[in-house]
Recover the amino acids of this structure.
């Protein structure tokens, strides 16, 4: 008895549905939930594609619809689709918005406080919130995510150290992902946010909104540590013949101090480089540079280097 020819593995979608399906795959970097897939295909077809190796089950009810390597974009979609009601948050959301220079361990998701999910992928980091207004949700995020300003505040809250929190806030400003007013509005809605004051200070410094404050704090530091009082905003000509204003200048000893309100992408590395450079300049030109947050938060380090530069230049403290 002749056998019936085997049926094709799947049937092509109708043209009007194929376009919608193709667009969904494009938008979600070839990642689908089973619920989404069932809008276009039968359960049997889905299971056949998985069995044939054309699709892979990345998590319970989530599929990658290609056989190639899974990249960052796919992982973000897998995470969001695997946890019902979740959106990208913190540094993961910032990375999706274009933040550069930060390695992200796992994918950080924000979920409503009342929601419980016991089956998230092992590499997903869940954070719960009871405060997520519509203004903090990116309405066109792909994947769904918090807005950049809310992402900055959350990333700073969740950072492992204060220095990493400063780095993230500063980098977001430097890379033009956020503006000061946007961050200030988020902070106003989150009076109990962890590191709220640190975020506010770093944002003000990075945005240039507190230009004179670090200089005032440096003057107070000099008085407190028995250092001579520098002149502020002194006009000097540099080696190229251009004139510039010095933040602080100890004229008698030729020691310049520059306080940088703008922040580097990686504050920790930037300050480490500055400190090494300062050590070299103490014996030479004696031009010292400090980020504003170091003047504020680590005054003893600043005072130690300024004192060393002044002593090398001939200053002697008076009792």
């Amino acid at each position: 008895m002749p056998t019936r020819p085997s049926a094709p593995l799947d049937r092509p979608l109708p043209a009007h549905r194929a376009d919608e399906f193709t667009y969904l795959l494009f938008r979600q970097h070839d990642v689908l939930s089973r619920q989404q897939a069932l809008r276009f295909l039968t359960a049997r077809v889905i299971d056949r594609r998985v069995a044939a190796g054309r699709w892979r089950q990345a998590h319970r009810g989530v599929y990658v619809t290609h056989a190639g390597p899974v990249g960052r974009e796919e992982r973000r979609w897998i995470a969001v689709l695997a946890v019902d009601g979740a959106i990208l948050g913190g540094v993961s959301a910032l990375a999706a918005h274009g933040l550069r220079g930060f390695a992200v361990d796992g994918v950080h998701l924000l979920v409503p406080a009342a929601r419980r999910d016991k089956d998230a992928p092992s590499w997903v980091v869940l954070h719960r919130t009871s405060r997520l207004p519509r203004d903090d949700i990116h309405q066109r995020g792909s994947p769904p995510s918090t807005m950049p300003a809310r992402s900055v505040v959350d990333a700073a809250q969740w950072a492992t150290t204060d220095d990493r929190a400063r780095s993230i806030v500063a980098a977001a400003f430097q890379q033009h992902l956020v503006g000061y007013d946007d961050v200030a509005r988020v902070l106003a809605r989150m009076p109990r946010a962890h590191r709220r004051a640190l975020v506010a200070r770093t944002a003000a410094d990075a945005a240039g909104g507190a230009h004179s404050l670090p200089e005032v704090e440096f003057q107070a530091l000099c008085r407190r540590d028995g250092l001579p009082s520098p002149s502020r905003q002194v006009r000097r000509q540099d080696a190229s013949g251009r004139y510039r204003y010095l933040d602080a200048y100890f004229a008698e000893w030729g020691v310049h101090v520059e306080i940088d309100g703008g922040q580097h992408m990686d504050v920790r590395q930037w300050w480490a480089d500055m400190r090494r450079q300062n050590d070299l300049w103490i014996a030479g030109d004696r031009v010292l540079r400090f980020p504003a947050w170091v003047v504020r938060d680590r005054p003893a380090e600043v005072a130690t280097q300024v004192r060393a530069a002044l002593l090398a230049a001939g200053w002697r403290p008076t009792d």
